[in-house]
Amino acid sequence: MSRHNYRIGIVLSSLLMMAAMSGAAQTATQKKTSPAKVAQPAPAKAAVPEHPVPLAADAPVSSCTECHSGVLSGKYVHTVMSDGCTTCHQISTKDGVTHVSLVAPVSQLCETCHALSDDKVRHGPYNEGLCVSCHSPHSSDFPGHTWASAQDICLGCHARARLKVNQKAKTVTTPWGKTLTLAEMKGWMYLNLDSTLTKNHPVKGHPVSGPNLKAGLPPITCLSCHKTHASSYKNLLTAGAPKNMNLCATCGVCEQCHESLF
Length: 262
Ligand code: HEC
Ligand code: HEC
Ligand code: HEC
Ligand code: HEC
Ligand code: HEC
Ligand code: HEC
Ligand code: HEC
Hints:
Strand content: 5-15%
Helix content: 10-25%
Radius of gyration: 22 Å
Order of helices and strands: HHHHEEEHEHEHEEEEH
Bound molecules: heme C
Distance between the termini: 56 Å
Largest sheet: 3 strands, antiparallel
Structural class: alpha+beta
Number of strands: 9
Number of helices: 8
Strand order of the largest sheet: 6-7-8
Shape: elongated
């Protein structure tokens, strides 16, 4: 089934869910038309562990958060959390045994509400739908409920000192504990940063964090020059860059800070 149908399905199921909450529809109807079941075969039971306690399909959020208070404890809470856990989680209970799966495969779930960028240069993990490698689906103490500050997120995969590589298992693990396969990391590269991880990119000696050239300009971060998801410029830059990294008056990405030099 195409993604397009999938999206419609999700909207439909949300509507049904809202109806169910107001008591107008039956859970049974909702289940029969559940798009996740049509779109994808239900995940093998072995892949979804048995939930330690049996749950009712319509268990209120408050009952979930009695045990899972962590999902709401971050300073930045994903807006949809207020719509209830079953916006994303599907609860199925049979013979007193509960399995909690997702309403869509994790790599497609976020796209059901957040359309992917059309920009031609897309960051690998974003393009592959690996949103939860950087974002908590629930909440965190960082803007955009990322697992760490934006700078630490970038360094987590692009600084040799931060990423743990397991060649035997063909996986990498970020400092915040997300494990990805080498296949998912296809094309990734380390930066040649100094040992403090604050300089030597994009040219030797150049700061990637710390104070800016002039008072009043925000401190430098990876996001001073790069987009996180997608861009119409090479290397996910916010604007064009010079060919050989020489300063030039017309190279957008350098100009924003170095214009005073010309
Ligand atoms: C009585 C305590 C309790 C309640 C109530 C509860 N859970 Fe859990 N849940 C657990 C424990 C314990 C685990 C296993 C350890 C963990 O992952 O935190 C778990 C695991 C999970 C997992 C991870 C996958 C899995 O099935 O192991 C999900 C998802 C989940 N719960 C969702 C929910 C949702 C949604 C609700 C409300 C409808 C809920 N839980 C209610 C205790 C509870
Ligand atoms: C926006 C979609 C979304 C909503 C809403 C949501 N979850 Fe999740 N949840 C996920 C995804 C996606 C994962 C799997 C993350 C992964 O694979 O890294 C997950 C994983 C979990 C887990 C297991 C891993 C963990 O983070 O501990 C628990 C427990 C859980 N959710 C509980 C809840 C509860 C309780 C609620 C409602 C209060 C809720 N979720 C609402 C998307 C959601
Ligand atoms: C059911 C629809 C829905 C799903 C599924 C969903 N989101 Fe959201 N998300 C929203 C809404 C609504 C907002 C708030 C409006 C906005 O900023 O676009 C939001 C906001 C966000 C924000 C912005 C937070 C901010 O502070 O600006 C992030 C990041 C985000 N979602 C990530 C995710 C990720 C990652 C997933 C998959 C695990 C996901 N969303 C799945 C509906 C959804
Ligand atoms: C490489 C890490 C990374 C990946 C992968 C990633 N994001 Fe983000 N995303 C970020 C960072 C960093 C921010 C900015 C947070 C901030 O404001 O500091 C952000 C911001 C956002 C925002 C709010 C601002 C905006 O652009 O609208 C949304 C919504 C969002 N992400 C959704 C997603 C979705 C959906 C996916 C998967 C398709 C995804 N992200 C994948 C790192 C990532
Ligand atoms: C989960 C691991 C991961 C994280 C976190 C991550 N990246 Fe990447 N990055 C990759 C992979 C894999 C590639 C190679 C695929 C590609 O070219 O996009 C890549 C490529 C890039 C490229 C080259 C893109 C191109 O078009 O050649 C840039 C620039 C980049 N990342 C910047 C960032 C920035 C900025 C952040 C923080 C917001 C970040 N990365 C966080 C995995 C990651
Ligand atoms: C001052 C601007 C600037 C800052 C700050 C910056 N970058 Fe870059 N980045 C660039 C430019 C320009 C390129 C293209 C370099 C080239 O073509 O030689 C680049 C290229 C990259 C690439 C692709 C490298 C390759 O070898 O193909 C990655 C990955 C990357 N940056 C990640 C990051 C991360 C992570 C941070 C933060 C730690 C960061 N950048 C901070 C300007 C910047
Ligand atoms: C976010 C602001 C910012 C951007 C964008 C930026 N720079 Fe810089 N640049 C700085 C700061 C801050 C310094 C350090 C100045 C100092 O210490 O005196 C610096 C220093 C330099 C130096 C001297 C390095 C050294 O060894 O001291 C060069 C060369 C340079 N930048 C080139 C570039 C190029 C090329 C670009 C575009 C790809 C660029 N810069 C983009 C802020 C920026």
